[in-house]
Amino acid sequence: MRRHEHLYYVADQPEIADAEYDRLERELRELEAQFPELVTPDSPTQRVGERPSESFPTWVHRVPMLSLDNTYNEEELREFEKRIFRQVGERPIDYVAEPKIDGLSMALHYEDGRLVRGVTRGDGVRGDDVTPNVRAIKSVPLTLTGEDVPRRLEVRGEVFLPRAQFDAINREREEREEEPYANPRNVASGTMKSLDAHVVAARGLRIYVYSVAQVEGVTIRSQWEALEKMAGWGLKTHPDSRLCHGLDAVLAYCDEWREKRDTLQYDIDGVVVKVDSFALQQELGATSKFPRWAIAYKYPARQATTVVHDIQVYVGRTGKFTPVAHLEPVPLAGSTVGRATLHNEEEVARKDVRVGDTVLIEKGGDVIPKVVKVVDAKRPEGTVPWAPPSRCPVCGAEAVKPEGEVDRRCPNASCPAQVEQRLRHFARRDTMDIEGLGDVLVHQLVEKGLVRDFADLYHLRERRDDAWPTSRPTTCSCRSRRARRASCAGFSTASASASSASGRRCCSRGTSGASTRSRRRRWRRWSRSTRLVPWWPARCASGSTGRRTSASSRG
Ligand SMILES: [Zn+2]
After folding, report:
1. How far does the centroid of ligand 1 lie from the alpha carbon of residue 393, in Å?
2. pLDDT by residue (tens digit) across 137-159?
3. Which domains are present in the chain?
4. Would residue 363 show up in a list of annotated catalytic residues for this protein?
5. If you measure from the C-alpha of residue 361 to the centroid of ligand 1, how many angstroms do you get, rounded to a whole number?
6. What are the Cα distances from residue 41, in Å, to 24, 47, 134, 155, 268?
7. Is the pTM higher than 0.85?
């Protein structure tokens, strides 16, 4: 069970199904009920134990948990290296770089390979001994594995809450009409203070360990070696840590992760850079606040203030109106932002966003920035509260807002805005997965009136001449045959519209490599996507009942 726990939570490579693991756990629980004298504290069933009486005891860190100095650009990072050179002389230096996760720091103490203590950073000198809660984090091994497990070991890591869990928690809170949490970091830190370890277990916190603070019985010479050793003992280290030869490699790493950070399942706010060699780290030492051998390279803030020029409504796939603030363009987290979503009219009313207001905007894990709040002090005179339009801005149909619903909608199912959004959704990878049918092409097809519903997509071939009259090929892509009029032998024109009779086709249907390949491809695409999509009927064409799985759009 420990092995499977490790494979699932630490290595991310489970070998058995969840149900199989549950079966093992049940079996172990039964055995432990039969032979209670054999239950050990590090048994996988003993993660969630008794709750502490009223508060967590204080623990004094043997090695202080210092925070890191920050840098915000290349120049400052080069200055960090220059300071090192001034102290120990100029020489080639290896660094270890890894993403800086926005969570809370935690010290884990192991004795003879068993987890004995988990302590929060606190003020760096004194932290809270939150061992019962740390045990409930599944990616913290209760027992170290592998070779040469040290007699005593203290490692440090970052506990964090993945975005998906955070969103789920907030959805639940909203359903109970409670105020949602501001960010995953706050939830993680609040959770670790909870006196009930069941809460911790349910929240799905995770950890990445990043340093060895103390070790007895094993010699480690560098940060990179420390990461390898910790991984070898079954601790979860960040899979994207990198040993960088020289500062240029570090800078390249920082640039790489500035782009990649939105693809992660959790928030990072920069990169931690450490001198690799422990001997050199010792030589450099620390100031009263920071170590001199490590630094954080912070990415630009994800919040900015700007002015709202206009608030416009966008019509979605189901006709839903989404108000969007058009902003004075402002640099934010590496790109220029000119728009921010306001979600729905009630949100606009709640935040009281008006045209002319100065607002605080934020870019989270999502690509679309959102308006956090209005800077009241900067509101100009004469602004008026925003009112949603009574008609659809695209087709002009009278908007409807059913009693008790948050959203106003365009009720016209053939509204071009809705058609376009539905087609985009239809073509997407997680629905029909139609290669090459991106947003721009969908827009062109709808604009030219070539496509009004999904079925039209499958007749585009017949209407090719309407769309691109000048680029009509005279040779089929199979290259062997000249294209002929559709009415040539072997073709039924019964289903073709009048305009398509003039279209040319390869007459070697069935034998041409190109047409066979394309038919096969089409079949594969179809068979890959015989699942129901949300706006489809509740029954499959075969007659069986459709089911929605979890919250995904897959049917
Ligand atoms: Zn409309």
Report:
1. 7
2. 999 999 999 888 999 999 999 99
3. 47-298 (3.30.470.30), 303-411 (2.40.50.140), 461-530 (no CATH)
4. no
5. 29
6. 18, 8, 14, 20, 34
7. no
